[in-house]
Design goal:
Structural class: alpha+beta
Number of helices: 15
Oligomer: single chain
Number of domains: 2
Largest sheet: 4 strands, antiparallel
Order of helices and strands: HHHHHHHHHEEEEEEHHHHHH
């Protein structure tokens, strides 16, 4: 997903869920901050490197792809952008190593989604924003995995965009190019994707890079033949999935802010959006590179307040200008603690299944996380 959904649509969902304008903005900022909080950024503000929630392209180009390097990549991308849908999934006649990758395929309504929402309950709004980013991405990034894998994440020339026509769909062959300097050509179904690399663990085979930005567009429907699915036709309906993501976020945030409320999987608050269903569906279906303006206009009508545009360094001065021992109570401090907690939970759940692709939390990690030891320097260690 992009800033249009992670920031502006998340604001709308938070406000409908009952949060105030100010709280909704902070939740939206935190959700979008997940996409920019890299080690490079954290180094700049002298924050805990273990709180990184993404990796820049330059960081990935320099990343190691030995077992230790792959664990580092997988910890970040599986935790925050490609949350596994079923860590106990079964697949016949395959190696244990391949099965472990197969079990990291992203999908909605898995046990980890429930744990993600429950972890944010009773926590600052920064943790709510992190949870909403993760939840939303389970819908957009379904069928791809947050670990480099040609077998799991590759696409081939049999890749079609589907356009509603009559009672069915018209198919149009998608053309993939590698010119990152030019925007996707929606009119001609020409999209930019990562360069094909035959090496299984190439960084080019991480996440949905081989499918370009198609998973990030709410309007698009497409079909392809994934190798992990035995090359059987798979159809992805983003308009339907994005509506489910939006209504599930509303439901999840109501659960988070309501005492004794329990989050149940496969549950959506469609009643809450009844007055605006056509408006919301119209934004989702609109064919455009970025829907920020439409979501922003809708959010401002909801609250009657102006929604600030996302400014990456909005809270940097507060953080850097606060003594180290007090930084945990700043906006960025609360975000980093929430990020560390979420990543630690996901690593722990993956490792419990015997899957070592994400590594394991280091000794003493949870003690530091829970405040039983001073984390001022140790937070820079990797989980």
């Amino acid at each position: 997903m992009q800033e249009d959904f992670h920031y502006y649509a998340t604001y709308c969902a938070a406000y409908i869920a009952g949060y105030s304008h100010e709280e909704s903005q902070d939740i939206a900022y935190s959700a979008q901050f997940v996409d920019v909080c890299s080690r490079t950024l954290l180094s700049k503000i002298k924050g805990p490197l273990n709180a990184a929630t993404t990796q820049l392209q330059l960081e990935l180009m320099d990343a190691r792809t030995d077992p230790v390097g792959l664990q580092d990549i997988t910890r970040i991308w599986s935790a925050f952008h490609f949350l596994p849908g079923n860590l106990l999934a079964e697949k016949k006649k395959c190696s244990k190593h391949y099965l472990n990758k197969y079990r990291l395929i992203c999908g909605p309504n898995g046990d980890l989604v429930k744990k993600t929402v429950e972890l944010a309950k009773g926590k600052p709004v920064q943790s709510v924003g992190i949870a909403m980013h993760v939840l939303a991405d389970t819908w957009a990034h379904t069928n791809f995995a947050g670990t480099p894998s040609l077998v799991i994440n590759n696409t081939n020339y049999v890749f079609y965009e589907l356009f509603p026509e009559g009672e069915g769909f018209r198919e149009k062959l998608i053309k993939f190019v590698h010119k990152t300097s030019t925007p996707d050509d929606l009119e001609n179904s020409i999209y930019t994707n990562s360069l094909y690399q035959s090496v299984e663990n190439s960084i080019m085979n991480l996440g949905h890079g081989r499918a370009g930005h198609l998973p990030d567009y709410s309007f698009v429907r497409y079909k392809y033949l994934p190798a992990w699915g035995e090359y059987e036709e798979l159809i992805k309906d983003n308009p339907s999935d994005y509506m489910k993501a939006f209504t599930q976020m509303i439901y999840a945030m109501k659960c988070i802010r309501t005492e004794n409320a329990s989050f149940e999987k496969d549950t959506y608050d469609t009643e809450a959006i009844a007055p605006w269903r056509e408006r919301i569906q119209g934004i989702i279906n609109k064919r455009q590179l970025l829907a920020s303006d439409d979501w922003k206009a809708f959010g401002e009508e909801l609250s009657g307040q102006e929604i600030e545009d996302f400014v990456i360094d909005k809270y940097f001065k507060e953080y850097t200008g606060t003594p180290k021992k007090e930084r945990a109570e700043t906006f960025i401090g609360k975000f980093t603690r929430g990020a560390i907690a979420h990543k630690g939970m996901v690593i722990d759940e993956i490792s419990k299944t015997g899957n070592k692709l994400a590594g394991a939390a280091k000794a003493g990690f949870w003690d530091r996380l829970l405040g039983r030891r001073d984390s001022s320097d140790e937070d820079k260690e990797e989980a």
